[in-house]
# Entry
Amino acid sequence: MRATDIVIPERLRPADGRFGSGPSKVRPEAVAALAADAPTYLGTSHRREGVRAVVRRLRAGLAELFALPDGYEVVLGVGGTTVLWDALAFSLIERRSQHLVFGEFSGRFAEAVALSTVVQEPDVIASEPGTHPLPQARDDVDVYALTHNETSTGVAMPVVRPAPRGLVAVDATSAAGGIEVDPRDFDVYYFAPQKCFASDGGLWLALCSPAAVERIERIGDGDRYIPPSLDLLIALENSRRDQTYNTPALATLHLMLSQLEWILGNGGLAWAADRCRTSAATVYDWAESHELVTPFVADPAQRSPVVATLDLDPAVAAADVCAALRANGIVDTEAYRKLGRNQLRVAMYPAIEPEDVRALTACIDYVLAQLSA
# Structure
Protein backbone atom coordinates (compact mmCIF):
# COMPACT_ATOMS: atom_id res chain seq x y z
CA MET A 1 0.00 0.00 0.00
CA ARG A 2 1.25 3.47 -0.85
CA ALA A 3 1.51 5.77 2.15
CA THR A 4 -0.72 8.35 0.51
CA ASP A 5 -3.47 5.74 0.03
CA ILE A 6 -3.87 5.21 3.79
CA VAL A 7 -7.13 6.61 5.11
CA ILE A 8 -7.10 7.34 8.83
CA PRO A 9 -10.55 6.88 10.40
CA GLU A 10 -12.24 10.18 11.14
CA ARG A 11 -12.73 9.20 14.80
CA LEU A 12 -8.95 9.12 15.30
CA ARG A 13 -8.05 12.41 13.65
CA PRO A 14 -7.32 15.62 15.55
CA ALA A 15 -9.75 18.49 15.27
CA ASP A 16 -6.89 20.58 13.87
CA GLY A 17 -4.07 18.88 11.99
CA ARG A 18 -1.40 21.58 12.18
CA PHE A 19 1.69 20.50 14.13
CA GLY A 20 4.39 22.56 12.42
CA SER A 21 7.29 23.95 14.44
CA GLY A 22 7.06 27.27 12.61
CA PRO A 23 5.09 28.78 11.07
CA SER A 24 2.83 27.30 13.70
CA LYS A 25 -0.88 26.85 14.06
CA VAL A 26 -2.77 30.16 14.14
CA ARG A 27 -5.98 29.98 16.16
CA PRO A 28 -9.12 30.55 14.04
CA GLU A 29 -10.37 33.03 16.65
CA ALA A 30 -7.32 35.22 16.03
CA VAL A 31 -7.94 35.17 12.28
CA ALA A 32 -11.59 36.10 12.85
CA ALA A 33 -10.58 38.99 15.11
CA LEU A 34 -8.18 40.27 12.44
CA ALA A 35 -10.90 40.04 9.79
CA ALA A 36 -13.30 41.96 12.02
CA ASP A 37 -10.78 44.78 12.57
CA ALA A 38 -9.46 44.77 9.00
CA PRO A 39 -11.55 47.67 7.62
CA THR A 40 -10.05 50.16 10.08
CA TYR A 41 -6.71 48.47 10.75
CA LEU A 42 -5.15 46.79 7.69
CA GLY A 43 -3.83 49.27 5.17
CA THR A 44 -3.38 52.06 7.72
CA SER A 45 -0.22 53.91 8.78
CA HIS A 46 1.95 52.17 11.36
CA ARG A 47 2.81 55.60 12.79
CA ARG A 48 -0.78 56.44 13.63
CA GLU A 49 -2.78 55.57 16.70
CA GLY A 50 -4.66 52.60 15.22
CA VAL A 51 -1.51 50.51 14.78
CA ARG A 52 0.45 52.13 17.60
CA ALA A 53 -2.31 51.15 20.02
CA VAL A 54 -1.81 47.50 19.02
CA VAL A 55 1.96 47.82 19.53
CA ARG A 56 1.33 49.49 22.91
CA ARG A 57 -0.91 46.64 24.03
CA LEU A 58 1.63 44.13 22.74
CA ARG A 59 4.50 45.69 24.67
CA ALA A 60 2.44 46.02 27.85
CA GLY A 61 1.14 42.47 27.52
CA LEU A 62 4.64 41.02 27.13
CA ALA A 63 5.82 42.94 30.19
CA GLU A 64 2.92 41.39 32.11
CA LEU A 65 3.36 37.88 30.71
CA PHE A 66 7.03 37.73 31.65
CA ALA A 67 6.64 39.72 34.88
CA LEU A 68 9.39 42.10 33.79
CA PRO A 69 11.02 44.00 36.66
CA ASP A 70 11.18 47.79 36.68
CA GLY A 71 13.55 49.14 34.06
CA TYR A 72 13.16 46.27 31.60
CA GLU A 73 11.94 47.33 28.16
CA VAL A 74 10.19 45.56 25.29
CA VAL A 75 11.87 46.37 21.98
CA LEU A 76 10.71 45.25 18.54
CA GLY A 77 11.77 45.52 14.93
CA VAL A 78 11.27 44.14 11.46
CA GLY A 79 13.09 41.14 10.03
CA GLY A 80 12.80 38.22 12.41
CA THR A 81 15.43 36.52 14.54
CA THR A 82 17.89 36.15 11.67
CA VAL A 83 18.09 39.91 11.28
CA LEU A 84 18.33 40.40 15.03
CA TRP A 85 21.46 38.23 15.17
CA ASP A 86 23.22 40.76 12.95
CA ALA A 87 21.80 43.62 15.01
CA LEU A 88 23.14 42.05 18.21
CA ALA A 89 26.59 41.76 16.63
CA PHE A 90 26.54 45.46 15.81
CA SER A 91 24.69 46.84 18.83
CA LEU A 92 25.14 44.58 21.87
CA ILE A 93 28.48 42.76 21.70
CA GLU A 94 31.31 45.08 22.70
CA ARG A 95 34.27 42.82 22.02
CA ARG A 96 33.58 39.09 22.27
CA SER A 97 30.63 36.75 22.73
CA GLN A 98 30.34 33.13 23.81
CA HIS A 99 27.88 30.87 21.96
CA LEU A 100 26.46 27.52 22.99
CA VAL A 101 25.90 25.61 19.75
CA PHE A 102 23.73 22.48 19.76
CA GLY A 103 21.70 22.67 16.58
CA GLU A 104 21.02 24.62 13.42
CA PHE A 105 19.74 27.86 14.89
CA SER A 106 22.13 28.23 17.81
CA GLY A 107 24.88 27.70 15.24
CA ARG A 108 23.60 30.39 12.92
CA PHE A 109 24.05 33.17 15.47
CA ALA A 110 27.64 32.06 16.09
CA GLU A 111 28.26 32.04 12.34
CA ALA A 112 26.82 35.54 11.96
CA VAL A 113 29.10 36.89 14.67
CA ALA A 114 32.12 35.09 13.22
CA LEU A 115 31.56 36.97 9.94
CA SER A 116 31.27 40.35 11.67
CA THR A 117 34.05 42.88 11.22
CA VAL A 118 33.19 44.93 14.33
CA VAL A 119 33.73 42.29 17.05
CA GLN A 120 36.24 39.55 17.83
CA GLU A 121 36.00 35.90 16.86
CA PRO A 122 33.35 34.31 19.11
CA ASP A 123 34.04 31.68 21.73
CA VAL A 124 32.01 28.64 20.64
CA ILE A 125 31.10 25.72 22.90
CA ALA A 126 29.35 22.96 20.97
CA SER A 127 27.73 19.62 21.72
CA GLU A 128 26.16 16.90 19.60
CA PRO A 129 22.57 17.37 18.39
CA GLY A 130 20.20 15.93 20.98
CA THR A 131 22.21 17.40 23.87
CA HIS A 132 23.17 20.87 25.04
CA PRO A 133 26.51 22.18 26.34
CA LEU A 134 27.03 24.38 29.38
CA PRO A 135 28.37 27.95 29.38
CA GLN A 136 31.77 28.73 30.84
CA ALA A 137 32.67 32.03 32.52
CA ARG A 138 35.48 33.85 30.70
CA ASP A 139 37.06 37.20 31.49
CA ASP A 140 37.12 38.31 27.84
CA VAL A 141 33.43 37.56 27.13
CA ASP A 142 30.90 40.39 27.45
CA VAL A 143 27.86 38.60 25.95
CA TYR A 144 26.85 35.02 26.67
CA ALA A 145 24.58 33.75 23.87
CA LEU A 146 22.25 30.97 25.01
CA THR A 147 19.35 29.23 23.28
CA HIS A 148 16.35 28.39 25.46
CA ASN A 149 14.93 25.87 22.99
CA GLU A 150 16.72 24.53 19.92
CA THR A 151 13.90 24.18 17.40
CA SER A 152 15.83 21.92 15.05
CA THR A 153 16.61 19.19 17.61
CA GLY A 154 13.96 19.50 20.33
CA VAL A 155 16.46 20.26 23.09
CA ALA A 156 15.64 22.76 25.83
CA MET A 157 18.15 24.16 28.29
CA PRO A 158 17.78 26.23 31.46
CA VAL A 159 18.50 29.95 31.34
CA VAL A 160 21.21 30.72 33.89
CA ARG A 161 23.82 33.43 34.34
CA PRO A 162 27.24 31.85 33.84
CA ALA A 163 29.14 34.78 35.34
CA PRO A 164 28.46 37.92 37.40
CA ARG A 165 29.84 40.02 34.55
CA GLY A 166 28.69 39.95 30.96
CA LEU A 167 25.23 40.20 29.45
CA VAL A 168 23.10 37.11 28.87
CA ALA A 169 21.33 37.10 25.47
CA VAL A 170 18.87 34.26 25.00
CA ASP A 171 17.42 33.07 21.71
CA ALA A 172 13.88 32.19 22.79
CA THR A 173 12.35 32.03 19.32
CA SER A 174 10.49 28.77 19.98
CA ALA A 175 10.48 28.95 23.79
CA ALA A 176 8.99 32.35 24.59
CA GLY A 177 5.39 31.96 25.65
CA GLY A 178 5.65 28.20 26.18
CA ILE A 179 8.46 27.74 28.71
CA GLU A 180 8.74 29.63 31.98
CA VAL A 181 11.75 31.87 32.57
CA ASP A 182 12.92 34.26 35.29
CA PRO A 183 13.75 37.68 33.75
CA ARG A 184 16.43 38.21 36.38
CA ASP A 185 18.43 35.49 34.61
CA PHE A 186 18.67 37.29 31.26
CA ASP A 187 19.51 40.66 29.78
CA VAL A 188 18.08 40.14 26.30
CA TYR A 189 15.38 37.50 25.74
CA TYR A 190 14.48 37.62 22.09
CA PHE A 191 12.01 35.80 19.89
CA ALA A 192 9.71 35.91 16.87
CA PRO A 193 5.91 35.56 16.62
CA GLN A 194 5.55 32.43 14.47
CA LYS A 195 6.02 29.82 17.21
CA CYS A 196 4.34 29.98 20.64
CA PHE A 197 2.72 33.31 19.76
CA ALA A 198 0.80 31.74 16.87
CA SER A 199 1.34 34.49 14.32
CA ASP A 200 3.34 35.05 11.14
CA GLY A 201 7.08 35.73 10.92
CA GLY A 202 9.01 38.81 9.91
CA LEU A 203 9.17 40.51 13.31
CA TRP A 204 11.61 40.29 16.19
CA LEU A 205 10.92 41.17 19.81
CA ALA A 206 13.40 41.51 22.65
CA LEU A 207 12.94 41.88 26.39
CA CYS A 208 15.87 44.01 27.54
CA SER A 209 17.23 44.56 31.04
CA PRO A 210 18.51 47.96 32.21
CA ALA A 211 22.06 46.68 31.68
CA ALA A 212 21.24 45.73 28.10
CA VAL A 213 19.57 49.09 27.49
CA GLU A 214 22.66 50.87 28.82
CA ARG A 215 24.91 48.80 26.54
CA ILE A 216 22.71 49.48 23.49
CA GLU A 217 22.67 53.22 24.21
CA ARG A 218 26.42 53.38 24.80
CA ILE A 219 27.34 51.49 21.63
CA GLY A 220 24.71 53.35 19.61
CA ASP A 221 26.07 56.71 20.75
CA GLY A 222 29.66 55.70 20.02
CA ASP A 223 31.71 55.80 16.84
CA ARG A 224 30.90 52.29 15.59
CA TYR A 225 29.13 52.33 12.24
CA ILE A 226 25.78 50.54 12.49
CA PRO A 227 23.36 50.25 9.54
CA PRO A 228 20.11 51.93 10.62
CA SER A 229 18.02 48.78 10.13
CA LEU A 230 20.40 46.92 12.50
CA ASP A 231 20.79 49.70 15.05
CA LEU A 232 19.17 48.59 18.31
CA LEU A 233 19.27 52.15 19.64
CA ILE A 234 17.03 53.25 16.76
CA ALA A 235 14.78 50.24 17.46
CA LEU A 236 14.68 51.14 21.17
CA GLU A 237 13.77 54.75 20.52
CA ASN A 238 11.01 53.76 18.08
CA SER A 239 9.65 51.10 20.43
CA ARG A 240 9.29 53.70 23.15
CA ARG A 241 6.94 55.47 20.74
CA ASP A 242 5.04 52.21 20.08
CA GLN A 243 6.26 51.84 16.51
CA THR A 244 9.03 50.27 14.45
CA TYR A 245 11.77 51.98 12.43
CA ASN A 246 10.42 50.56 9.17
CA THR A 247 7.00 49.26 8.26
CA PRO A 248 5.93 46.03 9.99
CA ALA A 249 3.39 43.48 8.81
CA LEU A 250 0.21 44.70 10.48
CA ALA A 251 -1.45 41.28 10.34
CA THR A 252 1.50 39.78 12.24
CA LEU A 253 1.15 42.33 15.04
CA HIS A 254 -2.59 41.77 15.33
CA LEU A 255 -2.41 37.97 15.33
CA MET A 256 0.35 37.99 17.93
CA LEU A 257 -1.62 40.33 20.18
CA SER A 258 -4.64 38.02 19.98
CA GLN A 259 -2.52 35.04 21.04
CA LEU A 260 -0.80 36.99 23.80
CA GLU A 261 -4.05 38.25 25.29
CA TRP A 262 -5.56 34.75 25.00
CA ILE A 263 -2.67 33.36 27.06
CA LEU A 264 -2.96 36.16 29.62
CA GLY A 265 -6.70 35.65 29.88
CA ASN A 266 -6.23 31.97 30.65
CA GLY A 267 -3.65 32.37 33.39
CA GLY A 268 -0.49 33.70 31.80
CA LEU A 269 2.87 32.05 31.26
CA ALA A 270 2.41 29.44 34.00
CA TRP A 271 -0.81 28.28 32.32
CA ALA A 272 0.76 28.17 28.85
CA ALA A 273 3.83 26.30 30.08
CA ASP A 274 1.68 23.76 31.91
CA ARG A 275 -0.41 23.24 28.76
CA CYS A 276 2.77 22.54 26.77
CA ARG A 277 4.08 20.18 29.44
CA THR A 278 0.80 18.25 29.30
CA SER A 279 1.16 17.78 25.54
CA ALA A 280 4.84 16.88 25.90
CA ALA A 281 4.10 14.23 28.53
CA THR A 282 1.60 12.64 26.15
CA VAL A 283 4.15 12.46 23.33
CA TYR A 284 7.18 11.32 25.33
CA ASP A 285 5.27 8.74 27.41
CA TRP A 286 3.81 7.29 24.20
CA ALA A 287 7.21 7.21 22.48
CA GLU A 288 8.97 5.67 25.48
CA SER A 289 6.62 2.69 25.43
CA HIS A 290 6.55 2.25 21.65
CA GLU A 291 8.34 -0.50 19.72
CA LEU A 292 9.03 1.67 16.68
CA VAL A 293 9.38 5.19 18.15
CA THR A 294 12.09 6.61 20.43
CA PRO A 295 12.58 10.14 21.76
CA PHE A 296 15.62 11.57 19.97
CA VAL A 297 16.73 13.48 23.08
CA ALA A 298 17.95 10.77 25.44
CA ASP A 299 18.06 12.83 28.63
CA PRO A 300 14.48 13.57 29.79
CA ALA A 301 15.72 16.72 31.54
CA GLN A 302 16.82 18.14 28.17
CA ARG A 303 13.66 17.27 26.22
CA SER A 304 11.75 20.26 24.96
CA PRO A 305 8.17 20.79 26.15
CA VAL A 306 7.33 22.69 22.95
CA VAL A 307 9.04 20.73 20.13
CA ALA A 308 9.36 16.93 20.26
CA THR A 309 11.76 15.03 18.00
CA LEU A 310 11.03 11.33 17.58
CA ASP A 311 13.28 8.77 15.90
CA LEU A 312 11.60 5.94 14.00
CA ASP A 313 12.85 2.38 13.65
CA PRO A 314 14.82 1.96 10.39
CA ALA A 315 12.18 -0.51 9.24
CA VAL A 316 9.75 2.38 8.80
CA ALA A 317 10.49 5.45 6.67
CA ALA A 318 9.58 8.68 8.40
CA ALA A 319 8.90 10.20 4.98
CA ASP A 320 6.15 7.61 4.40
CA VAL A 321 4.59 8.31 7.80
CA CYS A 322 4.60 12.05 7.15
CA ALA A 323 3.16 11.54 3.66
CA ALA A 324 0.31 9.43 5.03
CA LEU A 325 -0.45 11.96 7.74
CA ARG A 326 -0.37 14.82 5.25
CA ALA A 327 -2.76 12.98 2.93
CA ASN A 328 -5.18 12.92 5.88
CA GLY A 329 -4.86 16.61 6.70
CA ILE A 330 -2.24 16.23 9.45
CA VAL A 331 0.66 18.40 8.34
CA ASP A 332 4.22 19.51 9.05
CA THR A 333 5.42 16.57 11.13
CA GLU A 334 8.61 16.26 9.05
CA ALA A 335 12.01 16.36 10.79
CA TYR A 336 14.29 19.34 10.41
CA ARG A 337 15.79 18.75 6.98
CA LYS A 338 19.47 19.37 7.82
CA LEU A 339 19.43 16.99 10.78
CA GLY A 340 19.11 14.12 8.31
CA ARG A 341 17.45 11.60 10.60
CA ASN A 342 14.60 9.13 10.16
CA GLN A 343 12.53 11.28 12.41
CA LEU A 344 9.27 13.08 13.12
CA ARG A 345 9.12 16.53 14.68
CA VAL A 346 5.97 17.66 16.48
CA ALA A 347 5.21 21.14 17.78
CA MET A 348 3.35 21.38 21.09
CA TYR A 349 2.92 25.15 21.34
CA PRO A 350 0.14 26.67 23.49
CA ALA A 351 -2.25 27.12 20.53
CA ILE A 352 -2.17 23.37 19.83
CA GLU A 353 -4.82 21.55 21.81
CA PRO A 354 -3.40 18.80 24.09
CA GLU A 355 -6.24 16.54 22.94
CA ASP A 356 -5.11 17.04 19.35
CA VAL A 357 -1.62 15.95 20.36
CA ARG A 358 -3.08 12.81 21.90
CA ALA A 359 -5.05 12.20 18.71
CA LEU A 360 -1.87 12.60 16.66
CA THR A 361 -0.21 9.73 18.50
CA ALA A 362 -3.21 7.52 17.72
CA CYS A 363 -2.99 8.52 14.06
CA ILE A 364 0.71 7.69 13.92
CA ASP A 365 -0.05 4.30 15.48
CA TYR A 366 -2.64 3.66 12.80
CA VAL A 367 -0.28 4.66 9.99
CA LEU A 368 2.55 2.51 11.37
CA ALA A 369 0.22 -0.48 11.55
CA GLN A 370 -0.91 0.03 7.96
CA LEU A 371 2.63 0.44 6.67
CA SER A 372 3.71 -2.72 8.49
CA ALA A 373 0.77 -4.82 7.30
In short: DSSP finds ten helices and twelve strands in the chain. The CA atoms of residues 106 and 147 lie 6 Å apart. The longest helix spans residues 268-288. The first strand starts at residue 73 and ends at 78.
